[in-house]
Design brief:
By secondary structure, the protein is of the alpha+beta class. The chain is built from 16 helices and 12 strands. The radius of gyration is 35 Å and the shape is extended.
Length: about 500
């Protein structure tokens, strides 16, 4: 209100209220900016300050973890990301160029060392998880918590001194607010541009936290994998944040329907007692002591006896939950659309799909998975691999004289994600064949979708065809057409 309306409100609050209501209705150019009756209670905060988001972020984290433990829908979402983003693990292929002398031997040596490093006792500081298992855990925490921290640790292990320590986001110390003149936002020390300089973790004495003390680790020793959606965002936000209310509604509705169905399945029996016989008042005279029905229940084939004048009345609850399936389906569709997954992926219900709709759903889902795969590779796996190579070189296990001078040559690599299959492989194979013949696609991309390297496929096929020739004394079946065509072309010359 301005000064005039406040003056009017002091004299006549009703008049001032009507005046303000009319002004609100006339001033708004957009419905979304109106403060009218329909939007009266919709006044969200316009700030994105991390300190103000702390309470809500911690509450969302607790709720998301609760759904992870107790919700089938939430677990289905998490499992879908684990299966398709990581699967059996992302395969490393060293790609030292052929121009480097002994490139094949170097690539084989690097891949062998990486395979050995990926074992639990070599890569994990706790020696309990292999690299593939760590990747699954990273994806789970990325979805539920919104982020995960990996600390680079060096030990006295002579062969693999470089280890990984995975730490959860709630291990960051929110009580530290500044360090050395730099601002610390919920455990992350940043400079004037918002770049992380260090991470302040809670300090523990065994299992007990030492309050008031923290451990500061430089940013170059920590990998913080989280999704940033705002320029001023410093901490993480759960990927389930928009789905949490819907998942909670689905759980509560299913529980209510379950209770209702259990009640509907019950058969209750009430005993209607007759009026006592005899005179009225203190002189009541009964012919005998009646039996009690306490503790009695119905059982198949039972024969019972009632007291004189008692009757049995059955109570069968009426009603049914006819809209349960539609309501649950609607909730799951809303949850999936907010996260980027199809209804069929979350519910595993394929009753209402055909080939085209199922294929389109898979295509959209894979876009979501590939987006997370690129983030995982670029933020986590590739930096770990580069540090692994330097460690192997410094420990003398990778003997390359000019490694530091030509690091970009020796660190070249690719990550092959888990392969995907289609609903109708024959249709996809024919489509790939046409695309290759018309130069609309490449063998490299087709093999990458299946989780394979095209060079390995070509070399393996060449070895197989050569072996067939040696064993059968002829040509492989894949070369019959080509050789027949060549013979036909040579016949006129003869």
């Amino acid at each position: 209100m301005n000064w005039l309306e406040r003056t009017i409100a002091a004299i006549s609050p009703q008049w001032a209220y009507k005046r303000q209501a009319w002004r609100s209705g006339m001033d708004a150019l957009y419905d979304s900016g109106s403060r009218g009756r329909l939007n009266m209670n919709w006044n969200p905060a316009a700030t994105a300050d991390e300190n103000k988001l702390r309470v809500e972020r911690n509450l969302m984290l607790s709720r998301a973890r609760d759904l992870e433990r107790n919700s089938d829908v939430a677990e289905a979402i998490i499992d879908a990301f684990e299966r398709n983003v990581v699967g059996a693990g992302l395969t490393l292929q060293a790609k030292v160029p052929k121009s480097v002398p002994g490139a094949d031997q170097i690539n084989q040596k690097i891949e062998k060392l990486w395979k050995e490093f990926s074992k639990a006792e070599n890569c994990d500081i706790t020696a309990t998880q292999s690299l593939e298992e760590i990747e699954e855990m990273l994806v789970r925490r990325y979805v539920v918590d919104g982020g995960i921290l990996i600390v680079k640790v060096f030990t006295d292990d002579k062969r693999f001194p470089f280890k990984l320590q995975v730490r959860e986001v709630d291990e960051l110390d929110p009580l530290t607010t500044s360090f050395g003149g730099n601002r610390v936002v919920d455990g992350i020390e940043i400079n004037q541009f918002g770049r992380p300089l260090a991470y302040h973790f809670k300090k523990f004495d065994g299992t007990r936290q030492i309050h008031g003390e923290s451990v500061r680790i430089e940013a170059d020793k920590v990998i913080f994998w989280r999704r940033k959606t705002s320029p001023r965002q410093v901490r993480e936000l759960s990927l389930l944040r928009t789905a949490i209310p819907r998942i909670k509604d689905a759980n509560q509705f299913i529980e209510a329907v379950s209770v209702k169905e259990r009640v509907l399945a019950c058969l209750s029996v009430f005993i209607k007692k007759g009026s006592p016989t005899g005179s009225i008042g203190r002189g009541v005279n009964t012919t005998g002591k009646g039996s009690s029905y306490d503790g009695m229940s119905l059982s198949p084939g039972m024969i019972g006896e009632l007291n004189p004048g008692d009757e049995v009345q059955t109570v069968i609850p009426a009603g049914q939950a006819s809209n349960t399936k539609d309501f649950i389906s609607t909730l799951i569709r809303l949850v999936g659309s907010g996260i980027g997954l199809s209804y069929e992926t979350i519910s595993r219900d394929m009753s209402n799909v055909n080939y085209s709709s199922a294929r389109q759903g898979l295509i959209e889902d894979r876009k979501t998975y590939k987006k997370m795969q690129r983030s995982l590779i670029g933020t986590v796996l590739s930096p770990i691999y580069l540090l692994f190579l330097e460690t192997m070189f410094l420990t003398g296990q990778l003997e390359i004289r000019d490694f530091m001078q030509n690091k970009e040559l020796y660190t070249a690599h690719v990550w092959i994600p888990p392969g995907n299959t289609w609903i109708d492989p024959m249709k996809e194979v024919n489509a790939n064949k046409v695309a290759l013949e018309s130069n609309q696609d490449t063998l490299a991309r087709i093999c990458a979708e299946r989780g394979e390297d095209w060079r390995d496929v070509v070399m393996q096929r060449a070895e197989e065809m050569k072996l067939i020739q040696e064993l059968m004394g002829g040509v492989a079946s894949g070369q019959n057409n080509a050789s027949d065509g060549a013979d036909e072309e040579q016949q006129p010359d003869e």
